[in-house]
Amino acid sequence: MNDRECIEFLQLALPKMEMRWVGFRKVRKQVCKRINRRINELTLSNSSAYMRYLDACPEEWAQLDQMCRITISRFYRDRGLFGHLENDELPEIARKAIGRGEKELSCWSIGCASGEEAYTVLLIWEKRLKPRFPNLEIKVIASDSDPNMIRRGEAGCYGPGSMKDLPEELMEAGFDRSGEQLCIKDRFKNKIKFLNQDIREAMPDGPFHLILCRNLVFTYFNERLQQRILKGIRERLTPGGILVTGIHETLPAGSNDLFLSEAPHIGIYRSYLRPWVNDDAH
Ligand SMILES: C[S@@+](CC[C@H](N)C(=O)[O-])C[C@H]1O[C@@H](n2cnc3c(N)ncnc32)[C@H](O)[C@@H]1O
């Protein structure tokens, strides 16, 4: 299957999985490679034969869905964002939580890959903000549908490539060397709970003060699915809580009713202060 055939295949297949081609355009090479491998494994002749196979064996769609997972991540990905979280959003959330008599900040990283983004928030809190808010703990939940990613996150060991944006001081404070790898210290590891969960099927109970949903839902999923998941996210945010999307992502139509655009150029949205009212209940 050449590039053109793969594009045609993806343009046909992705919408059937509530995904959208535009999100995959730049990363299609790795998806096409996996599909090619699968076509060979099944000893099929080409992508049309694979489409017929999908029609005949509906359980194959789950395989294709897995082949469409893009798992790229790294620590402190998008420096501007994490700087802003550290200097503005997290201190404000913390002050308000303390004002309400709360003892813990809760955070959820959706599509967490191997935990890079979840550990980044944790390290920023523990090393840079905790000294200012010593009585406030942080709890981080990190969920991903790929069990291999979850296992890697729980193991907490990474190659230097995924650390290239992480400030030296946080790296020194957070990791121990183990051969070529850097492994997160146990006292940080214990503060993250990893969940092998598909965001389309399940979400952890909230409420969360901060939810990171970056480079997954608002890139790869179609608008209807984005809206459904956004509603679930909104229901799990504390009033005034923060949603962080990827810096190149935009929220679907209708989101203005749910979120204030706090700093949309770096993907920061604030839920309205009034509690969420579930329209379906009326
Ligand atoms: C591109 S990575 C983003 C990682 C991180 N959020 C970041 O921005 O650096 C997308 C992650 O979403 C996960 N993923 C894909 N489909 C998912 C789904 N339906 N539910 C939960 N996670 C999913 C993938 O396994 C992958 O680890």
Describe this protein's structure.
With 282 residues, the protein is of the alpha/beta class. It has two domains: 3-67; 79-281, 3-Layer(aba) Sandwich (Rossmann fold), CATH 3.40.50.150. It has helices at residues 3-16, 21-24, 28-41, 47-56, 60-67, 79-99, 116-129, 147-155, 168-174, 186-189, 217-220, 223-236; strands at residues 104-110, 137-144, 157-158, 175-178, 181-184, 192-196, 208-213, 237-245, 259-263, 268-271. The strands form two sheets. A seven-stranded mixed beta sheet has the order 6-2-1-7-8-10-9. The protein has a three-stranded antiparallel beta sheet with strand order 3-5-4. A hairpin with a 2-residue loop joins strand 4 (175-178) and strand 5. Helix 6 crosses helix 7 (116-129). The radius of gyration is 20 Å and the shape is globular. The structure holds S-adenosylmethionine (SAM).
Number of helical stretches of at least 4 residues: 12
Hetero groups in this structure are: S-adenosylmethionine
User: The CATH topology of the largest domain is what?
Assistant: Rossmann fold
Count of all domains: 2
The strands making up the biggest β-sheet line up spatially as 6-2-1-7-8-10-9
% residues in beta strands = 15-25%
Q: Which class do the helix and strand fractions yield?
A: alpha/beta
Q: Tell me, briefly, the overall form.
A: globular
The overall pLDDT, averaged over residues, is 94
- Give the class-level CATH name of the largest domain: Alpha Beta
Give the second-level CATH assignment, the architecture of the largest domain.
Answer: 3-Layer(aba) Sandwich
Report the CATH superfamily of the largest domain.
Vaccinia Virus protein VP39
